Amino acid sequence: MSNINLAIFASGSGSNAENIFNYFSENKVVHTQTLLCNNPNALVLKRLEGKIPNKILFNKEELNNSEKIDLILERFKIDYIILAGFLLKIPDRLIEKYKGKIINIHPALLPAYGGKGMYGMNVHNAVIDAGENKSGITIHLVDELYDNGKVLFQAECAIEAGDTSEILAQKIHLLEQEHFPRIIEEYIMGS
Ligand code: GRF
């Protein structure tokens, strides 16, 4: 099988980005050598310091209105884009170019608690405030709308009485660590 190159897009802490990088580090077919980040202060840059060879910083304007990202994706022969805590909307032209090849993780059970503004702790706060007794993760393909593409996988966790948003965030984090890289692998190997 020929090489498959993933680009990881991340904006923040990067625990998922690091986990994906580690998971595929010995893989002979799937390569994670390219990290794209829109936040110069993001912890993900430190986490993957000296590990990931291609680290590219960009801003929203460059993503939306220039060829910078497109050229980088071409240069590194990127086959799939993985959104691992990436907070900007992917422009339609990239969605068109990478149809069925952009995978996102959302920290709730979509279609509930998705859409614009629903990211990070906003999601967990909303779930706790609504008194839900479960939440979970959704791994899905990305289309033109926020949190709307085909669902590839969901996993649930229970919310116990007294759980705070922070406790829920930890439970979600464990689910993400357990499932995200494996689901990426299954999807791209089956495509
Ligand atoms: C994760 O909860 C992910 O589901 C969401 O943003 C968070 C990113 O965390 N999209 P990290 O940056 O991977 O640590």
Q: Any overview of this molecule?
A:
By secondary structure, this protein is α/β, with parallel strands linked by helices. The chain contains seven helices and seven strands; from the N terminus they run βαβαβααβαβαββα. It is globular.
Keyword list:
191 residues, alpha/beta, seven-stranded mixed sheet, 7 helices, 7 strands, binds 5-O-phosphono-beta-D-ribofuranosylamine
Write the layout of secondary structure elements.
Elements: E1 4-10, H1 15-24, E2 30-37, H2 43-47, E3 54-57, H3 60-65, H4 68-75, E4 80-83, H5 92-97, E5 102-106, H6 120-129, E6 134-141, E7 151-158, H7 165-190
Parallel strand pairs: 1-2, 1-4, 2-3, 4-5
Antiparallel strand pairs: 5-6, 6-7
Helix pairs in contact: 1-7, 6-7
The structure holds 5-O-phosphono-beta-D-ribofuranosylamine.
What's the gist of this structure?
This protein is an alpha/beta fold.
For the termini, the CA-CA separation is: 13 Å
The number of E-state strands comes to 7
Helices and strands, in order, run as EHEHEHHEHEHEEH
Please give the count of helices: 7
Q: Unreliable stretches, pLDDT < 50, 5 or more residues?
A: none
Class of secondary structure makeup:
alpha/beta
The biggest sheet amounts to:
7 strands, mixed
